UniProtKB/TrEMBL annotation:
Family the entry assigns: Belongs to the GLE1 family.
GO cellular component, one term: nuclear pore cytoplasmic filaments
Keyword terms: Coiled coil, Cytoplasm, mRNA transport, Nuclear pore complex, Nucleus, Protein transport, Translocation, Transport
Lineage: superkingdom: Eukaryota
An MF annotation (GO) of this entry: inositol hexakisphosphate binding
Record's function text: Required for the export of mRNAs containing poly(A) tails from the nucleus into the cytoplasm. May be involved in the terminal step of the mRNA transport through the nuclear pore complex (NPC).
Protein name per its UniProtKB record: mRNA export factor GLE1
Subcellular location: Cytoplasm; Nucleus, Nuclear pore complex
Gene giving rise to this polypeptide: Gle1
Gene Ontology biological process terms in this record: poly(A)+ mRNA export from nucleus; protein transport
Primary location group: cytoplasm
Length: 211
């Protein structure tokens, strides 16, 4: 699903429904999915492995999630697109609420994991290009659900991002990496100004479950 979501952001939601449905019935499959996701996208943990003595640069790049073929690392824009797709899929699964029987229920890997992911990200040193991209992706997809669940706490977190964490991202960002930064800044400012995070484009509405 990573390539599909990377190319078509809306695809995260129907894929999330299928994944979560299987996850609910077969929890072991959910564990395997998470393990696979964490291996391909360590930022979904979130985790940035440090370069250890004795580790080759090629192996380290693979640990960071880059595809390396014939000792050539994939281009940064392709890498970011893939990581974006996986984070969007993860966020879509986290925010999903769907009917179990006749009532709305939370997914087995629900919003509390999203809150934890966000808190852990903000406790890590930002990475140029990567952090701004993935925070934007994550919040655009499940920010609305987090806002409804955590309310005042969530807005305190958003203020912390703008006042404390965003300047730290700016400090490590070069002029050639400003695109993702400016997009994230615009998103932050609009959400804080309106005190609202809109439903993500492509999110499945109640009519979907009745169809």
């Amino acid at each position: 699903g990573e390539e599909e979501v990377a190319s078509h952001h809306d695809a995260a939601f129907p894929i999330a429904v299928v994944a979560s449905g299987i996850w609910e019935i077969h929890p072991r499959v959910g564990d395997l999915f998470l393990a696979h996701l964490h291996k391909k996208c360590p930022y979904s943990v979130p985790f940035y492995p440090a370069l250890k003595e004795g580790t080759s640069m090629e192996e380290y790049q693979r640990m960071l999630g880059y595809q390396v073929k014939d000792s050539k690392m994939e281009q940064q824009d392709h890498f970011l697109k893939r990581m974006s797709g996986m984070i969007r899929l993860y966020a879509a699964i986290i925010q999903l609420r769907w009917p179990y029987g006749n009532k709305q229920g939370t997914h087995p890997h629900g919003l509390n994991y999203g809150w934890r992911w966000l808190a852990q990200m903000l406790n890590m040193e930002p990475l140029a290009d990567v952090t701004a991209t993935l925070l934007f992706d994550f919040l655009e997809v499940c920010g609305n659900a987090l806002m409804k669940q955590y309310q005042v706490q969530f807005w305190k977190m958003m203020l912390l991002i703008r006042e404390d964490y965003f300047p730290r991202i700016v400090a490590i960002t070069s002029s050639g990496q400003m695109g993702s930064l400016m997009r994230f800044q615009q998103f932050l400012e609009e959400c804080l100004q309106q005190k609202e995070i809109p439903l993500p484009k492509g999110a499945l509405q109640s009519s979907f479950w009745r169809s």
